[in-house]
């Protein structure tokens, strides 16, 4: 494997089953290598989905939050070009108090309602789980010492953060998914205890590699997380949308500068401080899980957009491990 095209992230002595790991893809360009192809920070405020007016969502809007939505549009094209087998997502509003749960339901379908903003998100969803990978992640995480659970209850409603992030990443829903819960327990008595998320990220990577999947890993977190508690008329009236305060904004910028400059080691150290300063939603661990799965790659990282949603900071970011290969 060429280091020019991929940042090394662990042992890759396996091969995709039934396919040479070095065979060119259908277009004949870059080799379609198995493993984690890229990681994204994919925020999930329901406002972004509401503003898109997809047919699956009942409420209608006049738009809003365009800069973030245009970044998602750009990201979707890049994901298409990556040609991944699966999107593995960690999102903070499927909260599990005991253990890290993995959705192993083959075809989750139902109606997802945002409990705080039901006037923005009432979404009819149906997607496919990569069950083999979901089980492999749960097994690997268990072997690595984490409390895990394979969630097999067909009727359980999928939370709005998972639905929103997945819709914005792939509104066609034609890429299989693995959805991971956010285990609240480790940080219940502390502001920023992310140790288990490092392990879960590594377990995720090992499972992806052992099955030879070509995967996108998506951590779904907002950044600074103080927000308004009153809605002023029309939710998409952008004259009310701005950072909660200067302190929150400055800390988000400090955070994003490190991402833009590819200074991932420093970012890793800054995450707990950023949480303490801004109540960042990265406290739920999705970003740490994602970067740990990528192996904390130095020298890459793109901020596609930053914008606020009811005062919270949100950034769409990409760590493309194959950048230059496509
Ligand atoms: O879940 C969210 C969020 N993280 C940020 C802003 C608004 C609503 O929902
Ligand atoms: Fe959230």
What's the helix and strand layout?
Blueprint: E1 35-41, H1 46-52, H2 66-82, E2 86-96, E3 100-103, E4 109-113, E5 122-126, H3 131-143, E6 148-151, H4 160-169, E7 177-183, H5 195-211, E8 214-219, H6 246-260, H7 264-278, H8 286-294, E9 302-309, E10 312-320
Parallel strand pairs: 1-8, 2-7, 2-8, 3-6
Antiparallel strand pairs: 1-10, 4-5, 9-10
Account of the 3D structure:
This protein has helices spanning 46-52, 66-82, 131-143, 160-169, 195-211, 246-260, 264-278, 286-294; strands spanning 35-41, 86-96, 100-103, 109-113, 122-126, 148-151, 177-183, 214-219, 302-309, 312-320. It is built from 8 helices and 10 strands. Strand 9 and strand 10 (312-320) form a beta hairpin. The protein has a single domain (38-320), classed as 3-Layer(aba) Sandwich (Protocatechuate 4,5-dioxygenase, Chain B), CATH 3.40.830. With 326 residues, the protein is of the alpha/beta class. Mean pLDDT is 90; it is low at 1-27. The longest helix is centred in the first third of the chain and has 17 residues, at 66-82. The strands form 3 sheets. It has a 6-stranded mixed sheet with strand order 7-2-8-1-10-9, sandwiched between helices. Residues 44, 92-93, 161, 222, 281 line the site of fe (ii) ion.
| Largest sheet strand order | 7-2-8-1-10-9
| CATH homologous superfamily identity | LigB-like
Query: How many distinct folded domains?
Result: 1
User: If helices are DSSP runs of H or I spanning 4 or more residues, what is the number of helices?
Assistant: 8
Give the ordered list of helices and strands. Answer: EHHEEEEHEHEHEHHHEE
Strand residue content: 15-25%
CATH topology: Protocatechuate 4,5-dioxygenase, Chain B
**Share of helical residues:** 25-40%
What's the average pLDDT?
A: 90
Structural class: alpha/beta
Enzyme class: oxidoreductase
Pfam family, one: LigB
Organism: Nocardioides soli
Keywords: Dioxygenase, Oxidoreductase
């Amino acid at each position: 494997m060429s280091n020019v095209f991929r940042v090394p992230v662990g042992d890759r002595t396996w091969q995709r089953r039934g396919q040479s790991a070095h065979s060119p893809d259908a277009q004949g360009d870059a080799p379609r290598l198995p493993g984690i192809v890229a990681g994204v920070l994919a925020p999930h405020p329901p406002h972004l989905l509401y503003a898109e007016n997809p047919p699956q969502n009942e409420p209608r809007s006049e738009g809003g939050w365009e800069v973030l939505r245009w970044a998602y549009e750009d990201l979707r094209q890049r994901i298409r070009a990556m040609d991944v087998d699966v999107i593995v997502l960690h999102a903070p509003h499927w909260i599990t108090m005991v253990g890290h749960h993995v959705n192993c339901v083959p075809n989750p379908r139902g109606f997802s309602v945002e409990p705080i903003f039901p006037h923005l998100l009432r979404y009819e969803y149906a997607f496919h789980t990569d069950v083999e990978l979901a089980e492999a992640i749960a097994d690997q995480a268990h072997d690595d010492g984490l409390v895990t659970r394979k969630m097999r209850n067909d009727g359980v409603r999928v939370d709005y953060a998972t639905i929103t992030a997945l819709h914005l990443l792939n509104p066609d829903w034609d890429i299989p998914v693995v959805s991971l819960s956010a285990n609240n327990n480790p940080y219940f008595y502390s502001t920023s205890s992310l140790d288990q998320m490092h392990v879960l990220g590594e377990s995720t990577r090992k499972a992806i590699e052992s099955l030879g999947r070509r995967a996108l890993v998506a951590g779904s977190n907002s950044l600074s997380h103080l927000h308004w508690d009153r809605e002023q008329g029309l939710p998409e009236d952008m004259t009310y949308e701005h950072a909660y305060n200067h302190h929150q904004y400055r800390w988000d910028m400090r955070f994003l500068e490190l991402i833009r400059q590819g200074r991932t080691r420093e970012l890793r150290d800054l995450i707990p401080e950023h949480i303490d300063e801004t109540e960042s939603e990265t406290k739920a661990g999705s970003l740490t899980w994602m970067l740990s799965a990528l192996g904390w790659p130095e020298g890459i990282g793109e901020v596609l957009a930053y914008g606020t949603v009811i005062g919270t900071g949100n950034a769409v970011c990409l760590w493309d491990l194959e950048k230059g290969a496509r």
